[in-house]
Amino acid sequence: MLLAIYLNDHLAGATVGRELSRRAAATNRDTTYGSFLDDLARDVQEDRESLLAIMRALDVRVDRLKVAGGWGAEKLGRLKLNGRLRGYSPLSRVVELEALALGVRGKLAMWRSLEMLEPQRPQLADARLSDLAARAERQLTGLEEQRLRAVAEAFG
């Protein structure tokens, strides 16, 4: 079933997003980015739980290998050059915010795709897909505001 593959691919991406948003929130807890990133990490976790509920409603099994791959990919993504041998740099924040924005764009596309399928899939009726899409749009707006601020701090 192609939809099962699609949803599991997004679940792997949601796992990356959950791990990255948690790390970004923890790393920035005592900065002006902290509050936004704490809220985002909470939202990303809730969105992942919504996706799992949708998968259950559609009788889609979780592909644990893909989920583990997403978890591992986020850990490997930490091994990037950021202008410092060790630790966090202003470039780290810019790259993390950009990666989070890419993930949220993918999530928004998924919510909209599922909205389109809702008439043929009555199991999606209770999923609040329009609310989930609206939240993703708000997340993107906030991420872009934070990203631009981080760019000014890193390169300005």
**CATH top level?**
Mainly Alpha
What share of residues is helical? over 70%
Task: Report strand %.
Answer: under 5%
What CATH calls the topology is Ferritin
Radius of gyration: 16 Å
The end-to-end span amounts to 49 Å
Please tally the helical runs, counting DSSP H or I stretches of 4 or more residues.
5
Structural domains: how many: 1
- What class would the helix/strand composition place it in? mainly alpha
**What does the average pLDDT come to?**
91
Q: What is the oligomeric state here?
A: single chain
Quantity of strands, as a count: 0
The biggest sheet, with number of strands, parallel, antiparallel or mixed sense and barrel status, is: none
Low-confidence stretches: none
Please give the CATH architecture.
Up-down Bundle
Order of helices and strands: HHHHH
Shape: elongated
